[in-house]
Structures are given as structure tokens and as C-alpha cells.
Design a protein that fits this description.
351 residues, 43% helix, 2 domains, single chain, 13 helices, seven-stranded mixed beta sheet, five-stranded parallel beta sheet, 19% strand, Rossmann fold, 14 strands, alpha/beta
Length: 351
């Protein structure tokens, strides 16, 4: 039996992170050292899948050609939406690391790409966006908020929800700026936001962009709360944020293993000489969820594994995963900050 992972590792692109590859490898090694699945060793291969849509499609086709038992990844909304037709036709069970609403089986809007073979290991982006607005309203009571949205389906869908929620609360959206996923200078966005004189910023972006933007906010004298999503944790762990930018940053983590599962986090740190984040924990969990599904199915046949995944109720490192009608498996998150270089849970969320 075989599992293929579709995500990058450190150095494979400017956006690449080490956590997906490390978490999966840790789980694969443990499973094989314990005798595999049903007495069979698991063959594992990782295929680097870049964030660009065409790169994601090519990586997905390469994985499908190898006819694995299951796939884990892709990791971003743009990748998932672009590669959805191939995943649907392949009829190979897949667990994705993107909460794009269009990827869920029960999505009823335009552009839905969900199908019965695809399961989502992350909370829905739009649910998180709505709760981010509720949080900033309760925590800061702002009268004016600026939005920064990466120019892809993830940024557009999340910022659409945020804008509607802010307007319903009577909070003025001073500006809605966009950036490309590979932008290296955010000065124009910083200055445009600064001209609107907001009380805080809601930022829907990828890790490197959050780092650049956060630092440039401080460099331009805009020291206000900077509320981002799951990528904030990657930015913090990179060590590239200035102290002032770090202390004003908030993030939304799917889980925080260093506080919520300290024993596992210590094992990860011993193996990789780095602290884990939610991505490491979820990728580790994804491998074990596939193992659990194969064992419950008593088979590696695709349809049998897929049906078992649809009945998932698995206690993992990150959370207890339970399949819903949209093939969503994850139903919680935590809002955190990074004051004085410490990760602190500010609020727990459930969906």
C-alpha cells in the first residue's frame, strides 16, 4: 500500500514550509516501525506541489499516475480548486489541507469543486473569517477596520465574509487591499491602509507575506493590531518578524500542539530540532486517519477506504476528527497572540 503527499519542503520555493513533510514522515516512520498497516509496510512518497495552480495540477497528475492507496495534500485553496477535476476523476481517497469552502461536498454556491473522494482536514475558511470578525469586535471594539486579501480564492472568499460581517456590525471598512501570493514588497498596501486611519487590520495571507507586511507596518509607523489567520504562526516561527510586529500580531491556529499536546510536541522537537505547529500535527494525523480507515475497512480498495473515511471519528494530536456532511473533519481552532515571543491562546473556537 502507498501514500503520496502533495506539499513542498524547505527550500523548494520561497513559500515552502517544513511542517507538512516533517509531520507526515514522523507518522510513516512510526507506523512502519510498528509493523505497518495490517502487517504491510507503507510506501510513502512526497511530490513537491507549488502554490501556482498549474504546478499543483501537474503534481496531482504525477501522483495519480502512481495509483496510490491514498493521497494527502494539497495545502492551499488555489491548488485545490485547480486540481479538483483530476482528483474527482481519479477516484483515489484524498485528504486536503485547505479549508476553501468550495472544496466541501455540501457547498451550494458557485464554483463548488467538492466530491465524495476528497476530505478536508482543516476548518472552513469562511467560518474562521466570521469568527475573526466577532473576536476583533469583542476584543477591540473598532470603528474602522482595513482588509488585506491575497489575490486568490482563499483571500477573496474570506475577505468577502469579513466585509459583510463588519458592515453588519456597523464597522467601517476603510480600505480593501490585495496582494499577489508571491509579493516581496507590501509598501503600497501599507500606505493605502495607513491613509484610511484604521483601528486594526484583518489580513488573509500566506506566511511570507504576513512577515513582510507586519514588518513594513512598523517601519511606516502603523502600530495597530494585525489580525491574521493560520499563516501567522508560520510567520512567528520563522523568526523574521521584528519584535514590535510580532507583539501586535494575532493568528488563528487549527490547534497549538506545544500547549495542547506537550508530550507529542516534545517528540517532534527531539526529532526535528524545531517546534511543531498545527500543520505538522495535522499531517501526522492525516497519515494515522488513513491507517484507521484502512483498518476499519479491512481493505486497501479505494471505495472501501473512502467509505471508511466518511465515518471517521478519530482522536488525533490536533483534535478529534469527525466527518460531517461536507466531508469536513476538523471543527475547532484557537485564536493566539505572540507577545514577548510566547504563543498564548486568547480564545477557543468551535464550528
Amino acid at each position: 500500500m502507498s501514500i503520496i503527499g502533495l506539499y513542498e519542503d524547505t527550500g523548494e520555493s520561497p513559500a515552502a514550509q517544513p511542517y507538512f513533510a516533517a509531520g507526515a514522515q514522523m507518522a510513516i516512520d512510526e507506523i512502519n516501525e510498528a509493523g505497518g498497516i495490517g502487517g504491510q509496510e507503507v510506501t510513502y512518497e512526497r511530490i513537491a506541489a507549488g502554490l501556482a495552480a498549474d504546478a499543483a495540477v501537474q503534481s496531482t497528475l504525477q501522483a495519480i499516475d502512481k495509483a496510490p492507496t491514498a493521497m494527502i495534500g494539497l495545502v492551499s485553496s488555489g491548488q485545490v480548486i485547480a486540481a479538483a477535476p483530476e482528483k474527482r476523476m481519479a477516484e483515489i481517497p484524498a485528504i486536503l489541507f485547505s479549508g476553501a469552502p468550495q472544496a466541501f461536498l455540501d457547498y451550494e454556491g458557485e464554483g463548488g469543486v467538492g466530491n465524495e473522494w476528497v476530505f478536508i482536514l482543516r476548518p472552513r475558511n469562511t467560518s474562521i473569517a466570521a469568527q475573526q470578525v466577532a473576536f476583533v469586535n469583542d476584543e477591540f471594539a473598532p470603528s474602522k477596520v482595513a482588509l488585506l486579501c491575497v489575490n486568490n480564492p482563499f483571500g477573496t472568499a474570506s475577505c468577502d465574509v469579513m466585509e459583510a460581517e463588519l458592515e453588519a456590525l456597523g464597522i467601517e471598512v476603510t480600505t480593501r487591499e490585495t496582494n499577489e501570493f508571491d509579493a516581496t514588497d507590501m509598501t503600497a498596501q501599507v500606505l493605502a491602509i495607513q491613509n484610511g486611519d484604521p483601528d486594526l487590520i484583518l489580513d488573509v495571507n500566506f506566511p511570507n507575506r504576513i512577515t513582510v507586511f507586519g514588518n513594513q507596518l512598523i517601519e511606516n509607523g502603523l502600530a495597530i493590531p494585525h489580525v491574521a489567520g493560520a499563516s501567522a504562526g508560520f510567520a512567528f516561527l520563522s523568526g523574521n518578524l521584528s519584535d514590535d510586529a510580532r507583539d501586535l500580531l494575532y493568528g488563528v491556529e487549527d490547534c497549538l500542539p506545544t500547549l495542547q499536546n506537550e508530550e507529542w510536541a516534545a517528540k517532534y522537537e527531539d526529532q526535528f530540532a524545531a517546534l511543531p505547529n498545527y500543520a505538522a500535527a495535522e499531517t501526522y494525523d492525516a497519515v494515522y486517519i488513513i491507517k484507521d480507515a484502512i483498518e476499519r475497512a479491512g481493505s486497501t480498495e479505494g471505495r472501501a477506504v473512502r467509505n471508511a473515511l466518511a465515518e471517521t471519528d478519530y482522536e488525533g494530536i490536533c483534535t478529534t476528527y469527525q466527518a460531517d456532511a461536507g466531508n469536513g473533519l476538523h471543527h475547532g481552532a484557537v485564536i493566539v497572540n505572540y507577545v514577548d515571543g510566547q504563543i498564548n491562546i486568547v480564545k477557543e473556537l468551535s464550528f
